[in-house]
Design a protein that fits this description.
mainly beta; Beta-galactosidase, Chain A, domain 5; eight-stranded antiparallel sheet; about 50% strand; binds 6-O-phosphono-beta-D-tagatofuranose; Gal_mutarotase_sf_dom; glucose-6-phosphate 1-epimerase activity
């Protein structure tokens, strides 16, 4: 069955290959798994909490309306990364069979009272997920249904599964301006390929190239983005992994890298009735 709706999840299965599938938790509309011919493409913690009590540690968490924590402004009382990944989305159904495409929706009515009070604007999010033979496309349509302007940031917080962090290479970032949250410095990326040798937490701003994730030169994933100009690269490494209670196993950082497409280096303002769209298409080269 191409689309299976369960109590708390929706499963997409390619009719041509039942072992190519996507599993989406309604809590956070969080993609938990993406398999191609039975091979898992994403990383999810063995300690991920899936009961709706907190954000999922892995897969593709959704970040909206704020990336990180804002010190001031309407999002400053929201939890880190906002409420989209903390809310239960509505399954809106299948919109296409080729590629196999479904949609999820979120509005103020789906957000807890506490979180809605923290950011009390009217909005609609329509999240589209399309599964191809070797591709996963995610798209977001943001609408301001308020009577006033509001600002937002947005990001697909994708956890990629990789063979070995010591061999991972992220290509396409040369010359890009970086806000490095570990060294607390700003600089231009001078390396032709970005590798991970310690805790890494960087916002690459306004990235024009497509991104290639490779392992010792062997291509793993191509990432194509539309209207999400920034790319965040994150690996918690040894200590930060240990300090996250839901990050398991402790050495899981060796098998994952977050390469996150987002619009986070500035705020996007929507006026009443205005809509905004973005998408990310990942092609697995495994
Ligand atoms: O996207 C990178 C980042 O902002 C890191 O700073 C780290 O905090 C990571 O997100 C995970 O955040 P979370 O709130 O899911 O623990």
């Amino acid at each position: 069955m191409p689309i299976e709706q369960r109590d708390k999840e929706v499963i997409l299965t390619l009719p041509s290959d039942e072992s190519t599938a996507v599993r989406v938790l309604l809590h956070g509309a969080n993609i938990l798994s993406w398999t191609i011919a039975g091979k898992e493409q994403l990383w999810i913690s063995e300690g991920a909490v899936l009961d709706g009590s907190k954000a999922v540690r892995g897969g593709v968490p959704l970040v909206f309306p704020v990336f990180g924590k804002a010190n001031s402004g309407p999002t400053s009382t929201l939890p880190q990364h906002g409420f989209a990944r903390l809310s239960t989305w509505e399954f809106l159904g299948q919109v296409s069979s080729s590629p196999l495409t479904v949609q999820f929706g979120l509005g103020p009515e789906n957000v807890s009272d506490a979180l809605r009070k923290a950011w009390d604007f009217d909005f609609t999010l329509i999240y589209t997920i399309a599964l191809g033979a070797d591709t996963l496309e995610t798209a977001m349509r943001v609408e301001n249904t308020s009577k006033v302007n509001w600002d937002f940031q947005i990001l697909f917080h994708t956890y990629f599964r990789i063979p070995d962090v010591d061999k991972v290479e992220v290509n396409g970032l040369t010359g890009v301006s970086v806000k490095d949250k570990v060294s607390k410095s700003d600089y231009s990326e001078s390396n032709t390929t970005v590798t991970v040798t310690s805790e890494t937490d960087r916002v690459y701003e306004n990235v024009n190239n497509d991104i290639l994730i490779a392992s010792a030169g062997k291509p793993l994933f191509d990432i194509y983005r539309r209207n999400v100009a920034d790319v965040v690269v994150w690996n918690p490494w040894v200590n930060a992994s240990k300090n996250m209670g839901d990050f398991c196993p402790d050495d899981g950082y060796k098998s994952m890298i977050c390469v996150e497409a987002g619009s986070v280096s500035k705020w996007t303002t929507l006026s009443p009735g205005q809509t905004w769209e973005c998408s990310e298409k990942i092609k697995s080269l495994l």
